[in-house]
Recover the amino acids of this structure.
């Protein structure tokens, strides 16, 4: 029965997470009475419970019906879930939703079993539509190269880069995450597209067709990261914009996933998705905090559909950003322990282990 419930309701979209459990006897080892939907096997069929949950404020599920055969059991669960999904508030779990119903579990029995509201047929149809439309999203990604591109770290290469913005310290000869956040990188931006050197190089930043409309992707340049955005509805000189990928606030490498906006002023705003610091994407200037600024770079798309960004040599750029980060630590009176932390130990993999799963 547990497998039947798993396959029947996987992929269902609900206002809050759902937990279900099936116990094979009245000893109730699976703790079904503490779940949103709980099923306990009896000698005559199944007892059905609704509206339980654990957590900080545990709620005991209410007994809905007893000794049900399989078909009826599934029909009642279908209707309960569809009634909950269509009437509950956003992020409201079944327990508080059920407690807020006038009449509680008795009211639910009238709705689901007796069809007191005349909507059981509609609830049944909703569940059938849900089952027909279900597809495994991860399986789709596994077999679709275009979808796989969305999970690449960079748009211009399949290489990866350890850009984790957690700071590490050396404690007892081991590498540990630090307990405080890196300081803000304040002051003017390092680079401006208006002052680009003629000696800088144009690097490949992916195909134009790989970029989402009104969205951004990360570009790898040596060990540096850029954030490139495509805005097809803007004037030609603003359809492609490139800035640094590291956010000056807490040094999170998240700018390429930023949220874009265009207020009545005409400014193209960019909000860091983690900390919500805001910037003028055209100039890189900080909006909410003028002391936080992004470097900007020249960018263009050629006739072959290639996106190109004009940048300094990778090692020169790397050193410039490292010096800027070190200065931020000095201004904050902090020690840049991340730069001094020992490298993470990577153990070699036995080649034979990848050829067989016979353990």
């Amino acid at each position: 029965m547990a497998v039947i419930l798993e396959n029947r309701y996987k992929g269902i979209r609900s206002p809050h997470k759902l937990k279900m459990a099936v116990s094979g006897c009245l000893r109730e080892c699976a703790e079904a009475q503490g779940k949103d939907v709980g099923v306990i096997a009896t000698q005559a069929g199944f007892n059905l419970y609704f509206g339980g949950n654990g957590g900080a404020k545990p709620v005991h599920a209410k007994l809905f019906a007893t000794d049900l055969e399989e078909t009826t059991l599934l029909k009642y669960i279908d209707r309960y879930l569809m009634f909950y999904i269509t009437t509950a508030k956003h992020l409201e779990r079944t327990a508080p939703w059920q407690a807020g119903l006038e009449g509680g579990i008795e009211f639910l029995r009238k709705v689901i079993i007796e069809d007191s509201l005349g909507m059981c047929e509609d609830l049944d149809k909703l569940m059938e539509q849900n089952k027909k439309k279900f597809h495994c999203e991860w399986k789709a990604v596994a077999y679709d190269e275009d979808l796989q591109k969305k999970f690449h770290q960079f748009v211009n290469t399949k290489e990866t880069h350890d850009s984790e913005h957690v700071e590490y310290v050396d404690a007892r000869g081991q590498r540990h995450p630090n307990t405080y956040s890196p300081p803000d990188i304040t002051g003017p931006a390092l680079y401006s597209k208006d002052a680009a050197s003629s000696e800088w190089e144009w690097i490949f930043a992916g195909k134009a067709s790989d970029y989402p409309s009104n969205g951004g992707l990360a570009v790898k340049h040596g060990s540096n990261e850029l954030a490139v955005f495509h805005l097809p509805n803007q004037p030609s000189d603003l359809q492609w914009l490139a800035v640094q990928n590291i956010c000056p606030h807490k040094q999170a490498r998240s700018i390429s996933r930023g949220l874009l906006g265009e207020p009545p002023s005409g400014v193209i705003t960019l909000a860091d998705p983690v900390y919500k610091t805001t910037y003028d994407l055209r100039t890189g200037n900080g909006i909410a905090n003028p002391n936080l600024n992004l470097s900007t770079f020249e960018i263009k798309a050629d006739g072959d559909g290639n996106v190109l960004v004009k940048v300094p040599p990778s090692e020169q750029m790397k050193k410039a950003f490292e010096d800027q980060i070190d200065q931020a630590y000095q201004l904050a009176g902090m020690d840049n322990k991340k730069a001094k932390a020992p490298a993470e130990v990577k153990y070699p993999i036995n080649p034979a282990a990848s050829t067989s799963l016979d353990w």
